[in-house]
Design goal:
The structure is a homodimer. Chain A has five helices and eight strands, in the order βββαβαββββααα. By secondary structure, chain A is an alpha+beta fold. The radius of gyration of chain A is 17 Å and the shape is globular.
């Protein structure tokens, strides 16, 4: 399983995770896939030695689907609009395709289908950690793309907006709104049309 | 000239710009290539209608080289270490290759060679705007890569560090240092080994 070639590298890879309920209703949400690199320096060890994890929010549809089916798919994409839409609204049925019978996003650059095994419930947050075992990988599209600060900024803004939606904590809210304004300025200055459209959707949702 | 295929898309593309002096000494610096999309909706118009610009800092080596030779190359890469090194220290000779006789970075995913024409000197900043005309393009490597917030954060941190180095303005310095700390936390949490190495270099330089 060459997950690095499919875009899942070291650290946390921000992807759109697709899942389905036992009754087959698909869902999509932006989530980070955590790659825990084994630091043994012995030769002959390769990326297959990596451990993959995901942290799922306690009341999320993704969590209940994973609890029902023990499967999720990581959809690698750099489309800002897809990220923001997946964060704030259900995607339409036509945006999904099937990969080994499992719902994935048609427009994604690659798909990785994982088996999920419950690992830990975080006592402080109530969130769930699952260990992931890759079962199938498909790369649909490779490309070259320069870093765009607008793309980065809209992802950060979406993360802040999601957090604002799930917390009652007013203490950090002003600080977050200041950051949101900073990221919005970066999107306006550096982003392309997809980043600007994503920011507009984000601002309508928050 | 398919610049989008070489990774130079809408908005501002963060690349490493290589230049050389008349005597042939190469230089590299992280700079944004500005793509000004023409918004005429007439059919038959394509990306060749785009205008490309660059803003060069008034006392930079890149500016004096461009003034001497009227050429620059955009090197598209997502290597955090290369960005940070190019921002703060001269790259070594072995990191350069030649593309149509012009210095480019061996490790870059693509190269675009531009002719540069002086467009404007900004009165408020003293910086120079050049219009760019693409003359040659080469894509060396296509890939799929999930968004990594650590990569984004290290680029933002490098931009802040560069600004701190060129301004005497103390007013915003505290604000910038708060942002630097935020970006460092994101790199530590989400970055891979290249992002963490880049952050370390950045912290040693600032």
């Amino acid at each position: 399983m060459h997950l690095k070639e499919a875009g899942i590298g070291e650290g946390i890879s921000e992807v759109i995770v697709t899942t389905q309920s036992v009754s087959g209703v698909p869902n999509a949400a932006p989530i980070g896939i955590i790659t825990a690199t084994n630091n043994n320096n012995s030769k002959g060890k390769d990326e297959n030695e990596n451990n993959y994890f995901v942290r799922l929010y306690k009341t999320s549809k993704t969590l209940s689907n994973v609890q029902e089916t023990n499967k999720l798919a990581a959809n690698v994409t750099d489309d800002a609009v897809l990220f923001v839409k997946a964060a704030f609204e259900p995607l339409t049925e036509t945006q999904f395709s099937l990969f080994y019978g499992f719902p994935v996003l048609k427009e994604a650059n690659s798909w990785v289908l994982f088996d999920c095994a419950f690992s830990e419930k975080k006592s402080e947050s109530g969130n769930f950690i699952f260990q992931l075992t890759p079962r199938a990988v498909k790369t649909n599209r490779k490309e070259v793309k320069a870093i765009n600060r607008g793309l980065n900024a809209v992802i950060e803004a979406a993360i802040i907006a999601t957090r604002n939606a799930i917390t009652e904590d007013e203490r950090d809210r002003a600080e977050r709104e200041k950051l949101m304004a900073l990221y919005a300025r970066i999107v306006e200055k550096c982003g392309g049309s997809r980043e600007k459209e994503a920011l507009k959707i984000l601002q309508e949702k928050t």
